[in-house]
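User: Predict the complex with pyridoxal-5'-phosphate.
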Amino acid sequence: MAIRWAKKIDSLSESMTVAVSDRARELQQRGVKVVNLGGGDPDFDTPPHIVEAAVSALNQGLTHYVASKGIPELRKAITAKFQRENHVAYDPDTEVIVTASGKLALYMSLAAIIEPGDEVLYFDPAWVSYEPMIRMLDGIPAGVPLRPEDNFTLHGDVLKSRITPRTKAMILNSPNNPTGRVLTRDELNVVARSAQEHGYWVLSDEIYEHIIYDNRQHISLASLPGMHDLTVTLNGMSKAYAMTGWRLGYLGAPASLCEQILKVQQHVVTCAPSFVQAAGVAALQGPQNCVAEMVAEYDRRRRFMTEALNALPGVHCPLPEGAFYLFPQVRHRGMDSNALAKFMIEEAHVAVTPGAAFGKTGTQNIRLTFATSMANLRQAAGQLKAAMG
Ligand SMILES: Cc1ncc(COP(=O)(O)O)c(C=O)c1O
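Assistant: Here is the predicted structure with pyridoxal-5'-phosphate placed in the model:
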C-alpha cells in the first residue's frame, strides 16, 4: 500500500520565482547570457560592521541556544527601533520576538491565529508566499483585488465586500512586493477602521520599510489609534541590511498573542541563531548610512529601468514608490503574463516573474527586480528592446 503525503501540500504549486531562477541557471550553464531579474535578493554585500559583530560573537562562544524570544540586547534594540522609527511602543520582554527570518515570523504568527476554515484577507496581487502559508495552516485565502488601472489603490467598499463572519485576519504589505506601492495614511485608516469594526488581526509585513523613495513616509499600522492591540508588526534584516542569507527577522505584538507565537517558536526552532542575533544588534544600533547608500543606488536604478521599460512598445510601467521591483503592464502579441515571461527568458534572455504568480489581478503584468547592478539592467534593457522593438 502506498503511503500518501498531505493533500494540502501536494496541491501547492512550486514557487514561481524559484522556477524562473532555475530556468535562468539552466540556460546560463548552456552558455546563454541570461540576465536574471526574477528574484528579490539585494546584490550588495552585508555591511562589514555587521559581519564583524557575528565573527566576534562566534569567537566569544555565542554558539549555544539562547532565550527563545531572543537575546535581551537585540530585543531592546528592536524595541528602541520600533519607538524611534515607527512610533509604536512594545515591551522588550513581553511584546517582541526575534525569529529565524521574516518569513518564519509571518508563518508562526498565522499558526498562532488561524483555526481551520478561518478566512485571511490579503491584497491581490501579493507576495507569492502569503496564499500557500494560509493554505498550509488550513485557513481560507481571501484575496482583495486591487486594480492596475487604479495603481493598486485600496478602496473601502472593495475591502468590505470580502469580509465575512469567518474573517480572522488580514496580511498587509507596504511598501509592497510586487507592486511597489506605499500605502497612504488614508488607505491605512480604511484598514484600521475595518479591523476595529469587524474584529480581526492585521499582520503588517513592513520588511521593505527602509526602501522607499521621493521622501515618502512609511507609516506603521500599529501606530494608528486603536491598532496596537490588533496588529502584529513583522520585519527583518534581509532587505534593509542586505542580509538575506542570515535568516533574521522579528515581530512586535500584544503580549497575549506574543505568548502564543512564542509557544510555536519554542517547538519549531527553539530560537533564532545566537551569533546572528549579535549581528542584528550591530545592524540596528550601528551606523545607518549603509542603508541610505543602498537606497540611493536603488533609486538610480529604479529611474533608469522605469524609463527604459516605458520606451518599449506596449509597456506601461509606473514608477515604484518603494521596495525594489517594477510591475509593468505589458501588451505584446496578445500574450498573457506566463507567455510573456516565457518569451522574455527564451527570446530576450531576461528572466522575469509572471504577474500570475502574484494572484488573479496581475495577469497582464510581469515583475522585474532592480536589486542588481546597473550593468545588468542596461544589458536587460538592451535585450528587451531588441526582442520587442
Ligand atoms: C513581502 C515580503 N515579505 C517577507 C519576505 C521574507 O523575507 P525574509 O524571510 O528573508 O526575512 C519577503 C522576501 O522576499 C518579501 O518579499
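The pocket of pyridoxal-5'-phosphate is lined by residues 40, 101-103, 127, 173, 177, 205, 207, 236, 238, 244, 249 (CB under 6 Å).
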